[in-house]
Amino acid sequence: MARSGILTLFAALGLAPDAFAQPREGEVQAHYLHLDDARLGTARMEGFETGLRAWTPTFGHGFAIGADYLYTHYSYEGLPTRDRDLHRLAIPIEWTSQGATSVTLAAIPTVATSSNIFKDLFSRSTGDDFALYGRATVERGVEEGWGWRLGAAYDDSFGDPELYPIAAVTYSSASFALELGWPRAHAHWRPNDAWRLGIEVAPAGARWHVVSDERDGADFDYTVEAWRAALTADWRFASHWGIAAKIGSEFDRHHDFEDDTDARIDVDAESTAFAAIALRFTF
Fold it and tell me: Using CA atoms, how far apart are residues 265 and 283, in angstroms rounded to an integer?
């Protein structure tokens, strides 16, 4: 699916926080996201996500380990297919060097599959349910002023797994942080220590390996291409607790999977609104 010139320009001129690498705080965050009903080719679909993410604080010589679980549900009208329940579990292992110019390397073992396989992962999974993704960046930043980030990543952010570049010019001040770069884009403003308000754009693609018990074990890849743009608000209401909300649009959407008749569904989806809420504990 071709990317629009407006989308490319928007992301390339986008804005993002975290102008340079800093030691991670320990964090646990749970979230829920709802996708409104929209056209999927000649049919219709809606969906939701629930997720749980955790990171250790940076330890040793710059290491941190995470766990990121995401359950995605899609329901359909006008298609001869059951609703899809899709699971994803990633265990990122990250190392960041110290200094004004830092290197970050991440290995991200990931399992992404349908619910019937995920619940019996050790007995039913195959190599098709697993992937090893990764990211490498070099960045230069200061607490006040301009910096940069360069690197590359390999993952399924754009649907099918692929290698893509990371490039950004960054700026930070006491109350504002931005990033002019690709592929993620954010701008965040802090009016005080408790609140952070912003805007963000990011790819929202993914791929899962699905085994259809309705078709005697037939299997296929369910691939999603999409982007999300959102207004964000983050409130730190206690010393270790925060709550965040997003409202925005999922756009430039495309779904590729198989229905229960063995027919391939390879169609664009209408842009749709989404809303999300997350509860976070840091330590």
Answer: 45
